[in-house]
Specification:
This protein is α/β, with parallel strands linked by helices. The protein has four helices and four strands; from the N terminus they run E-H-H-H-E-E-H-E.
Length: 81
Amino acid sequence: MVYGRKTYQLMVPIWPEVAKTRLRQKASIEFARTFDSITKIVFSRSLDSAEEAIRELFVGILRTEILKLKQESGKNIMAAA
């Protein structure tokens, strides 16, 4: 999953906690567990370092880096703006 800094910082505090609880709707819990388990890649010009949940932190040109990621083996890339 590819994120911009703002979206990443909004989602990270919420979904890992939802994954741990049974008090939410089933769809929310399933999304939270998926979010918690997938590789996260963040594009940012303002973050200084990657948190543990981030595989990579890119500060380069978005298009160039996405094209490089598409060359890697693995599943589809999803972007969250």
